[in-house]
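During the reporting period the student researcher (J.K.) took over the structure-prediction task from the postdoctoral fellow and processed the backlog of single-chain submissions. One of the processed entries is reproduced below for the supervisory committee.
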Amino acid sequence: MADEAKRVKGEDRGTSAAGGFFKGVRREFSRIMWPSREDIVKQTFAVVLLSVLLGVVISALDFGFSTLINLLAGIS
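J.K. obtained the following C-alpha cells:
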C-alpha cells in the first residue's frame, strides 16, 4: 500500500513534488510564444499615447462641467 502511494506521488522516480512542479513550469515556459521586442515597443507606445489622450479628454470634460456648474450656481 505504501508503494502505491509513493508511485502516485512520484516519489519512486526520485523527484520531489516541488522538483516536478518546477520542471513542468519550465516546460510550459518553453512553449510560450513571446512577442518580439518591436511588438512590445509598439504596444507600449500605443498604451502610453491612449492614456495621455484619455487624460486630456477627461481633464477637458472636468473643466467644462465644473465651469458650467459654477455658472449655473452663480459662483465666480
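The committee noted the following: The chain has a mean pLDDT of 86.
J.K. will present the remaining backlog at the next meeting.
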